[in-house]
Design goal:
Glutaredoxin, 4-stranded mixed beta sheet, globular, binds glutathione
């Protein structure tokens, strides 16, 4: 399989950690692909017309995107269907946490793009809204930590852990650990997983 890949993308990292959890890391060839909302990648668009990462291409040429579908497809077809619980309400809880983690990464990317516009060009309202939403996500995770820790590792944990790692990478100034001791302790364990260690965030720009 071929993965359109970047060591800076949180959504790619999510998919790569899932690939390691499933045990497929030796079957995926990572192809460094540079994308941005302000530019298009013609070759990538042959596989994914949205020009987004991650995009996986199966050995028979079938493209698979986005990160959710990559994780669920590989978990169902090659794993032991561990990351996506089959039964409700376990499935609801895992998928809701995945959505929260994806949303946190979307927010962080939006905020990053706005910050890169430079002083004077940024929308203060957008930056303030991103900051407040991130704050509320962290509050919620801290408050609901037992719902988070009292179940086996699934796609929800994987996505939230990856999203918090992205805050460390791009938003160190937020000090997200401050005021969130339970989440901090959980994330320290997450960072010890071999799948997470094998897929560090790297700024190769
Ligand atoms: N919902 C998508 C989001 C993917 C996404 O936003 N990827 C970013 C990189 S982290 C991207 O490709 N950005 C390029 C663009 O928006 O044109 C997923 O879960 O895979």
């Amino acid at each position: 399989m071929k993965m359109h890949w970047s060591p800076r993308s949180p959504f790619v990292r999510k998919a790569m950690i899932a690939i390691h959890e499933i045990g497929l890391q030796d079957q995926v060839e990572c192809v460094r692909t540079v994308v941005a909302p302000t530019r298009v990648h013609e070759e990538l668009m042959d596989d994914n017309p949205l020009s987004k990462l991650p995009t996986l291409v199966l050995d028979d040429g079938t493209p698979v995107y986005d990160s959710h579908l990559i994780c669920e497809y590989l978990d169902a077809h090659h794993g032991r269907a561990r990351l996506f619980p089959a039964e409700w309400p376990e499935r609801l809880i895992a998928l809701r946490h995945e959505a929260l983690g994806d949303g946190l990464m979307d927010l962080a990317l939006l905020w990053l793009i706005e910050r890169q516009r430079g002083e004077g060009m940024q929308s203060e309202a957008l930056v303030a809204a991103c900051a407040r939403k991130v704050e509320r996500v962290l509050e919620r995770l801290e408050r609901d930590i037992s719902a988070f820790t009292d179940r086996p590792f699934d796609i929800g944990h994987l996505t939230i852990g990856t999203a918090l790692g992205y805050l460390d990478f791009r938003f160190g100034f937020l000090n997200w650990r401050e005021g969130h001791p339970a989440l901090t302790a959980w994330h320290a364990d997450f960072l010890e997983r071999p799948s997470v260690k094998a897929n560090p965030v790297v700024d190769d720009s």
